[in-house]
Amino acid sequence: xxxxxxxxxxxxxQTSNLMAQIKEHVAKLRxxxxxxxxxxxxxxxxxxxxxxxSRTVMPDLFKMNGLDALTMEDGSVVRVITTTNCSINKNxxxxxxxxxxxxxxxxxxxxxxxxxxxxSQMEALKANNIIYEEKTTMNTxxxxxxxxxxxxxxxxxxxxxxxxxxxxxxxxxxxxxxxxSK
Length: 182
Known about the structure:
By secondary structure, the protein is α+β, with helices and mostly antiparallel strands. The chain contains four helices and seven strands; from the N terminus they run ββαββαβαβαβ.
């Protein structure tokens, strides 16, 4: 059975066979969509459990027993590593506070500053007494390396403690397990 419809000079032929194919494909698409949603939910559950074991259960077990690393029967090595994350709050006040702190602790090279001058003030720039807005940015990986060095975690003596870190700088360290297979 075949019906023909005219749409803006394009002929569309609709057959019962075509409708059967569409229904079949829609059913398959729905099935795949549900499978993806279920897989995503299973992934989230597995990730949560993995992180619990990797960051809490196993590091605590190793620490309680005085272990840093252990070679398994299959030759793989399981060890506790310390992971460090660093971020700077996005608001201008916190960025300025972190930039000020870095300048006070010899971290000037980590700060990239831009001065924004309104076009109407360009002539005044040459004459001095300019009102401008300073925008600062910092590469968090460079800041993290700097902080690890200042905290004495890169082999040099510590010059600061975590309590010395400024407001607006988020610095986290946590132990987690690493498995190196042979």
